[in-house]
Specification:
With about 250 residues, the chain is of the alpha+beta class. Helix content is about 15%, strand content about 40%.
């Protein structure tokens, strides 16, 4: 944990903090780092996770943003000791394959969620398949999403989806403003489920698909599976670990 690589968001406070930390602890190139310290907010942490997928090193976040759900408190003291005592949290991203109306397929990974949203004033019509079986012949809605446990506290929670413990082994399938079936509120699916969304009346009712920040417009079919070959590894201070935060989110009122 002595070879630390620092990354900071473009925010002025994060940039100033990074300069102070680098002066105190040095800065190792990402390719040689044993741990990456990301300074910013939750959005920057997602950016860092995507940016460093190929490095296969743990990431320790320090909050210089607003919410900081995926971050530890910011302090310039005893960083090496904090890193040695930190507890890991690990999960797998979602792999999305989206095919648009021209037949082009786009692959992307989602650390939080894959979401489908209507592009116009008209509701989306979506057929939902799970493991090659049609589960909903037609969902009329503003959209639908699939969330990982780590992402279940984000957009998924805002759409009234369930918050998932990291070790639950499930994914959240959550509709966004469903109109029909009127009483359907989503499902919990095994982490090895293959989910397919088929867009009905795609020319009249266009839909976009987004994997975290990667958007594909005018999709006609979207396939989603958990990418088991890739792991996200975050480090958290023992007194403020991610598992406890996810549990506590279920009691927020």
């Amino acid at each position: 944990m002595n070879k630390i690589g620092f990354l900071a968001s473009e925010d002025n406070a994060a940039q100033r903090a990074a300069k102070r930390l680098i002066k105190q602890y040095g800065n190792t190139a990402l390719a040689d780092a044993e741990v990456i310290v990301a300074i910013g907010g939750d959005g920057f942490m997602l950016h860092t996770l995507h940016q460093t997928l190929s490095h296969n090193v743990p990431i320790y976040g320090m909050n210089k943003g607003s919410v900081g759900f995926l971050m530890n408190r910011y302090s310039e003291n005893n960083l090496v000791e904090r890193l040695r005592k930190a507890k890991p949290a690990q999960w797998h991203p979602l792999a999305m394959v989206a095919r648009d109306e021209s037949g082009i397929e786009v692959d992307a990974l989602a650390i939080n969620e894959v979401s489908l949203l209507r592009q116009t004033r008209q509701a989306a019509n979506i057929r939902v398949h799970v493991n090659d079986a049609v589960k909903l012949d037609e969902l009329v809605c503003d959209g639908i999403l699939v969330a990982t446990p780590a992402g279940s506290t984000a957009y998924n929670a805002s759409a009234h989806g369930p918050i998932l413990p990291l070790g639950a082994g499930v994914l959240a399938l959550t509709p966004i403003s469903p109109f029909r079936p009127r009483r359907w509120r989503g499902a919990l699916l095994s982490q090895d489920a293959h989910i397919r969304f088929e867009i009905l009346n795609a020319a009249k009712r266009p839909v976009s698909a987004t994997a975290d920040h990667h958007e594909v417009r005018n999709v006609v079919q979207v396939d989603i599976v958990e990418q088991r070959e890739v792991s996200m590894r975050l480090l958290f201070d023992p007194e403020h670990n991610l598992e406890d935060r996810i549990v506590n989110e279920q009691f927020m009122v």
